[in-house]
C-alpha cells in the first residue's frame, strides 16, 4: 500500500507507535480519499522503518522517527493516530493536542474519566478535533439501524439491550499481551472488548446515560489483578435495563440485541462485520407466536447494508473531514465525538468501581 500522492489537500497523519491495530488503521488512511500517512514514530527508528516497509508505505514519502516526540514536532503532520497502551494515552494525547495535532485515539481512551477530561480539555484549549477509534460507529449499517430504532410505530419505546463481545485468547495472549498487563492496559477485557459493549448500549439508548451500574458476580482476573472476563447490568430511572458480557476467555461473539415495546433488532457482528463489503442485521415488529405456539406467526426481516469503504476507512474519512474544516477555517471541532467518548468512559468507570466494591450498585453521574 503505497502512500497516496494524488489526493487533493489531504489531512496528513502521523502514527505514534507500531501496534498491531496500527496496521489496520494505516490501511484505512490509505483508502480514505482525504487522508495520507506522512510519518510513523516508534521508540526504535528501525521499528518505524520496518512498519513502513511491512505495510507497503512509500519510504520516500513517509518519514520514520525514533521517538513519538519527533512526530509531534513535525510541522508536516496535521493529525495523529495514537494506538499506544492506555497507560500512555494521557501523556501523548495531551502532548499532541498542545502541538495542535488533531487526535484519533485508540480505545479505551484513558484509564479513567478524570484522565480523559484532561485530554479533552487540552483538545478544546488548542482547537483540535478529538475522536476515539470505535470503528463500527461509522459503518452505514449503524445509521440504518438508528432509523429503525427511531421509528416509534415499528420499534416503540426502548426497554432492553444486551451486548456481548468475547474472544478466546490463547495462552501466549493471556500471558504476554499488553491488554493483560497492569502497567500497560490495567482495564483488561473491560477496557478492550467491554468498551464496545458499553458503546453499543449507549448508542441504542441514544446516548442517555444509565443511572446505575451493577457488575455481575463472577469476574475473572489474572494473577496481576487484570480483568479477563466480566459483565454488568445498567439501569435507567424509567425502567430501561441493559446487560453486557465481555471476555478474553470465550469463543468469538459480537452480539447486540435491542428490544422495544413494538420491535426488536439483532446482529451478531456489531464490532467487525462478517464481511468487509456488506453487513447484515435483523429487525422484527409485532412478532408473536402462532395459534398453537408451535412457531412464530412471522419472522424478523433481514437487512443487508453495503459499504463503499471499510468502516475504519469511513472513520478516517469523517475524522479527516472534520479536521480539514478546522484547518480551512470553515468549521470548528465537533463536540459530538468527545461527548460520546466521555459517556462511555463514565459507564466503564462505574462498572469497574462496582467490581472493586464487591458488586455493589454504583451511581453514574454525567
TrEMBL record:
Residues 11-131 form the Gfo/Idh/MocA-like oxidoreductase N-terminal domain. InterPro entries: Gfo/Idh/MocA-like_OxRdtase_N (IPR000683), GFO_IDH_MocA-like_dom (IPR055170), NAD(P)-bd_dom_sf (IPR036291). It comes from the Eukaryota. Residues 144-266 form the GFO/IDH/MocA-like oxidoreductase domain. It holds the Pfam family GFO_IDH_MocA. Transmembrane segments: none annotated. GO terms for molecular function: nucleotide binding. Belongs to the Gfo/Idh/MocA family. This is (wild Malaysian banana) hypothetical protein. It comes from Musa acuminata subsp. malaccensis.
